[in-house]
Amino acid sequence: LNEGSFFNLQMQLNFFLPHFKLYDFADRHNADITRMIFRVANIPYEEVLIDRNNEWQQLQREMPLGTLPVLEIDGHKIGGTTAICRQLAWRFGLSGETAADDSIVDMLADFLHEAHISLKSWINAIQNVNNSEQDVESLDKMASHYVSTRLGPVLEKHLEKNGTGFLVGGKMTWADLMAVSFFNKLFDSGREGFISAFPLIKQHYQQIAPIVLPPTKFNDKLNEDTLPIALTA
Amino acid sequence: LNEGSFFNLQMQLNFFLPHFKLYDFADRHNADITRMIFRVANIPYEEVLIDRNNEWQQLQREMPLGTLPVLEIDGHKIGGTTAICRQLAWRFGLSGETAADDSIVDMLADFLHEAHISLKSWINAIQNVNNSEQDVESLDKMASHYVSTRLGPVLEKHLEKNGTGFLVGGKMTWADLMAVSFFNKLFDSGREGFISAFPLIKQHYQQIAPIVLPPTKFNDKLNEDTLPIALTA
């Protein structure tokens, strides 16, 4: 392919690609996994950031579950993290390779989603959403217990059994992204000690996070727009 | 078809049908939605009921998420309610009719699953699992608030918009079964007042529950094995 025909191919792909519109709150916490999928698949999308205090009350009625994130695909709205991710995953090749693999992806993604729901007040507290005034110390204790007795052992066992560095099969799936999203909250808040007993989870995070998270996360002091990482060596 | 060829057809179907083995605790609370799917699809399965106090500690290590329900399909184990239901739904025609419909099924099923997780301590308390000694009154208050402000309005709106009596499209999907499973807990414990403001949800439950729940639920005084309902008229 020369440059011209590559450009034509791109035009054609864009022509057939639906218009994706992602609604999230202005703090961008709720749709982080969806953004990872778009980033890995290199697919353009429109982002609508909503002010929790002003616009939300008006817009909430138009959202199918009354919550964010919401993904609009050619005008058709889907709400809820796992429904959005599953929809995008089959479009962009982030599902399991076989039906059997995909049911394990489903299982682990739902398991990680359950962790997000069960630890919601803790996550809000450490991300300081809604100026949470909860008792962080007792929430930390609960979260640490959940990670060390439930989340950690199950994921570590799956990583060991699978043995490819990914959670399921030999390729990246949206279950890997769900895991990175969860553990990113630990790494970002200085709580990576929660997973010190799980070396394979740590390794999984360190290998996948740089690919799926925004480059700024790993180069806080660099402005990625003016100084590409490749030029700094 | 005469009786002989029907028998052969059945044999053939059984030959191609995988062997399904459903693991649940002896109180049978955890796999109720899975049982509904098998009942509606009229598919045979083996049930393994586990004693929470004796066998569980030993068996827990063999379960992929360390929890029940688990569905074993020809020796391959899947854990987690939504992953199990999604797998069976596409096998037995309980998914959405189109890709767009199916993403709404996913969305509502996950939304209902979230309700089950968020209200877990309340559900345990009213079902008296683990001899829960929680404060039922304050849990009831929380659950009633969740149903009237979150679950109820979203489902009522979807039922109104869809207008077929089902949650999505013109046929039964596993989202309907997730709803029946949740609201059955209200009806069974005398708390149907929680949904008095949502007439379409009540109608949905009353139309679908008799089809998907065991007949004994609706004919407590009849022994379904010795006295078929058809003979009592």
Automatic annotation (TrEMBL), chains A, B:
The record's PROSITE patterns line, in alphabetical order, gives: GST_CTER, GST_NTER
- Where would I find the GST C-terminal domain in this sequence? 98-229
Task: State the Pfam families in the record.
Answer: GST_C_3, GST_N_3
Species of provenance: Parascaris univalens (Nematode worm)
GST N-terminal domain ranges (all copies) = 18-96
Write out the coiled-coil annotation as residue ranges: none
> Source organism's superkingdom?
Eukaryota
Which PANTHER family does this entry report, sorted A to Z?
A: GLUTATHIONE S-TRANSFERASE (PTHR11571), GST C-TERMINAL DOMAIN-CONTAINING PROTEIN-RELATED (PTHR11571:SF256)
Alphabetized GO MF terms? glutathione transferase activity
- GO biological process per UniProt: glutathione metabolic process
Where are the bilayer-spanning segments?
A: none
Please identify the protein, giving its name as recorded.
Glutathione S-transferase
